[in-house]
Amino acid sequence: ITRNLGDEVYFRLIEPFCSGVYSGDPTQLSMKAAFYKIWVLEKEGGSLVGGALRLFNQNRKNPGPPRDPRLPPKPKVSVTCLSLTNWKLVDISKDASTGLTKLRYSTPEGNRNVSARHVVLTAPAWVLADLLKQSAGVTTLGTIYSSSLFPGRAGPGEILLLNYIGGVTNRGIVDQTHEQLVAQVDKDLRVMLLKPDAPAPKVVGVRVWPRAIPQFNLGHLDKVS
């Protein structure tokens, strides 16, 4: 990664991602075992960009199977993508007479009303999961918003967070008490996600596994072949 994309991409993207997904040491992970599709790009094209261009050209020459006839037909009119910033959604309602969804926005130019047949709402990325950066002094590997993924897992006004801490680069964590682990995770969350003066957490449970996630390190494929 550093050879193709540089140190900054490694420290800001790859290291947090590998720590959160594999709980491993990215300097020891096998690219072929852990990220095979990316490994193929460099192998086939000589570089990540060269491999991506090669794959693009191959797909153009050899298109995929025809469109599934069970899918709705493609629109015959052109579709315009319009991105508007600083528009805050104030109200959303259904128009019973037309069946359209009515949206009212607060914009820099004043209130605007929009009617649409279909509306897609995308939740912020942090609602699903948050891979936390160790470079910010945070040792928690990742946090999943369980109550957002599975409604009903938290009481009214509460959010259930599932946190992961430890990994290959922090093996000593298994020697800490449950109270110490809770305190460390709470400290990390107040740096990355919560307000410093947020109420103390309600601890649902703590589980410690000395050996948990398999590591696809260099030589892994030779061992399983």
UniProtKB/TrEMBL annotation:
<dbReference type="GO" id="GO:0016491">
    <property type="term" value="F:oxidoreductase activity"/>
</dbReference>
<dbReference type="InterPro" id="IPR002937">
    <property type="entry name" value="Amino_oxidase"/>
</dbReference>
<dbReference type="InterPro" id="IPR050464">
    <property type="entry name" value="Zeta_carotene_desat/Oxidored"/>
</dbReference>
<feature type="domain" description="Amine oxidase">
    <location>
        <begin position="135"/>
        <end position="215"/>
    </location>
</feature>
<dbReference type="GO" id="GO:0009534">
    <property type="term" value="C:chloroplast thylakoid"/>
</dbReference>
<feature type="domain" description="Amine oxidase">
    <location>
        <begin position="3"/>
        <end position="131"/>
    </location>
</feature>
<dbReference type="InterPro" id="IPR036188">
    <property type="entry name" value="FAD/NAD-bd_sf"/>
</dbReference>
<protein>
    <submittedName>
        <fullName>Protoporphyrinogen oxidase</fullName>
    </submittedName>
</protein>
<dbReference type="Pfam" id="PF01593">
    <property type="entry name" value="Amino_oxidase"/>
</dbReference>
